[in-house]
Write a structure and sequence with these properties.
Layout: E1 14-16, H1 21-34, E2 38-42, E3 45-49, E4 54-58, H2 72-83, E5 89-91, E6 100-105, E7 108-114, H3 118-126, E8 133-138, E9 144-149, H4 158-163, H5 165-177, H6 179-184, H7 193-211, H8 216-233, E10 242-244, E11 253-255, E12 261-263, E13 270-272, H9 274-285, H10 288-298, H11 304-320, H12 334-340, H13 342-348
Parallel strand pairs: 1-4
Antiparallel strand pairs: 2-3, 3-4, 5-6, 6-7, 7-9, 8-9, 10-13, 11-12
Helix pairs in contact: 5-10, 7-8, 7-11, 8-11, 9-11, 11-13
């Protein structure tokens, strides 16, 4: 991949925390003399914008972690009514996504997901890309419930990605081009790759703003990178959004003992550029010599335009996954944030996956 180095320097957004109205007013006074400003208020967050500088006056308070067992009692009642079995044990899986459980009962194990879009799980089940959906429904508070078959599987190894290259490429293509899947996802007003990328980047920037003050040692690097990426997405050409998974990492693939591959966690799906999913899986799991074959199977042009979009979207993704997702149980850890930027730094420098591709 070509280098995505920065060209030029950009103004460093500075975060100032003000606890008194007087201090706030004094800072604002000097900026009013020389520049046009806009003041936005979002709770305790005040943003001062002008042509070159973003000043934030914020006292960021962490949101208390949500209860991952919020609906446990209601889920037990739901399972008892559906399966006519009184004895159930609910176990929390690892992770910080939506409220989920492994349900042990009726001499079986089931996987339970709450607060998800039922329609997209039903469609993905119908095209054979996820563990079978057995039951769907709603709790008394209208929280959605999806009950899936439990698959005694594992996440793929690097060797698995190579061995199952054709199967994986075809699975992604089947998801991307499914008319039913495209129909159940939130509809968009534009089919342009540039518009989809700009929307995704805006979401990443909003999340970064919330946590930036906690990691001042890397703030300038991330700010400059975001400015650079914003310039790049404006250069995207073409259109043709697909049903994109948007989080197609190793932990969201499951391989069964008989070699069947399944996708997990559909909550991030949207209509988006196929370069998003394809760029992620190629950069993370496939050495350069296998990528042409993968693109050929999926019917993607191996040209500079697609390569460019894959690289930019993967850079955005590498930064996005370091920041807590909205409506999740993720927590921001300033101590590990710099280390977690290793992939982002690599792809911004035009390098391959730092972990390599050895099988």
């Amino acid at each position: 991949m070509k280098r995505m180095g920065m060209s030029g320097r950009y103004s460093n957004p500075t975060r100032l925390t003000c606890t008194k109205t007087l201090k706030f007013a004094l800072n604002v006074f000097f900026y009013f003399i020389s520049c046009k400003m806009m003041i936005e208020s979002r709770g305790t967050l005040f943003i001062l914008r002008h042509n070159f500088t973003l000043l934030q006056f914020a006292a960021y308070s962490k949101v208390p972690m949500r209860d991952r067992k919020q609906h446990q009692k209601e889920v037990l009642v739901f399972l008892q009514d559906i399966f006519h079995t009184r004895q159930w044990e609910l176990v929390l899986p690892q992770g910080t996504g939506n409220e989920t459980y492994f349900a042990h009962g009726n001499d079986h194990i089931y996987f339970i997901k709450l607060s998800v879009d039922i329609a997209r799980y039903q469609v993905m089940d119908s095209i054979g890309l996820i563990p079978h959906v057995l039951v769907t429904g709603y709790l008394d508070d209208r929280t959605s419930v999806v009950v899936q078959s439990y698959i005694e599987g594992r996440n793929p190894s690097r060797r698995d990605y190579c061995v199952h290259l054709e199967q994986i490429a075809k699975a992604i293509d089947r998801m991307h081009l499914s008319p039913e899947m495209q129909q159940v996802l939130p509809q968009v007003s534009s089919d342009l790759y540039s518009v989809a990328a700009a929307k995704s980047l805006s979401s990443i920037q909003e999340r970064w703003i919330r946590f930036k003050a906690q990691v001042p040692e890397v703030a300038e690097f991330v700010d400059e990178s975001l400015t650079y990426l914003n310039d790049q997405v404006r250069c995207f050409e073409g259109k043709g959004l697909v049903a994109s998974h948007n989080d197609i990492c190793n932990s969201n693939w499951l391989i069964s003992p008989d070699g069947q591959l399944y996708l997990l966690d559909l909550e991030s799906m949207s209509l988006d550029d196929p370069a998003f999913d394809i760029g992620a899986i190629l950069w993370w799991y496939y050495p350069p010599e296998l990528r042409s074959r993968f693109l050929e199977i999926g019917g993607h042009a191996n040209d500079e335009s697609f390569q460019f979009r894959m690289q930019v979207r993967m850079a955005m993704h590498c930064l996005g996954i370091t920041l807590p997702r909205d409506e999740s149980y993720d927590q921001f850890d300033p101590a590990s944030f710099t280390e977690r930027l290793v992939d982002f730094r690599a792809i911004m420098a035009g390098k391959e996956n730092p972990q390599g591709y050895d099988v």
